[in-house]
Amino acid sequence: MGRPCRQLEAAAARAVLGAADTLLFDCDGVLWRGDAAVAGAPGTLARLEAAGKRLCYVTNNSSRTRQAYADKLRRLGFPAAAPRQVFGSAYCAARYLRQALPPGAAAYVLGGAAPLDPAVRAVLVGFDEHFAYAKLCQALRYLLRGDAACLLVGTNRDHRLPLEGGAAIPGTGCLVKAVEVAAEREAFIIGKPSRYIFDCVVSEFDIDPARTIMVGDRLDTDILMGNTCGLTTILTLTGVSTLEEVKGHQESDCPARKNLIPDYYVDSIADLLPALED
Question: Engineering a disulfide at 275: which of 13, 32, 53, 184 sits with its beta carbon 3.0 to 4.6 angstroms away?
């Protein structure tokens, strides 16, 4: 039997939050939409921090630095966060490549066409608004030179990025897929739902999965990673995924879809405030 995915109301929320010492938050769709904070979200995080909870931010966005996220949190009225509390897929990809590549090796981050650099031992695919055929060709040249000796790494597989008003743009996953198809190889993925990004958090903080909560708005990234890593998972309905999708997974006979079901859901993380006010 799968998770019941209960609505997290005040009484249950007190117990769930009381049993946790760390909360991991996705950002866009959970804490803010674009450049506007979700109503009540800054106050909720301030209460959680005042209650002694460790707050970390885990995002698949590969286009911003840890410092940029810390600055945005402060600008939108959230509790001050140190850059070391932010785990983006670009930062975690850099950590991975430092560990995986030999000293002196370089990585080709999809960019403009240039002569082949003999030091390149990895191709890293992140979000690129200027992705072009020439860049795909350059990536393939590296991946075919020495075959598997050149790593193929993707920051995430998010195939679509939602915009205001129901619009969307193609996500990094589309670019990763293009390189994978051309190279006839599968990329190692850094971001959610890969557990590697969670392992990066664990490497910096003393975290017990049984006392950690993952709060996110996407079933196929946030919730799947949380469930895979043994965390308590909370879906917020201010972003991408819906309760209709959760119901579809609950009614499915596919075992893999059961891992997409969160333990709890809230309409917004501001719904946690009543449990923190006593």
Answer: 13
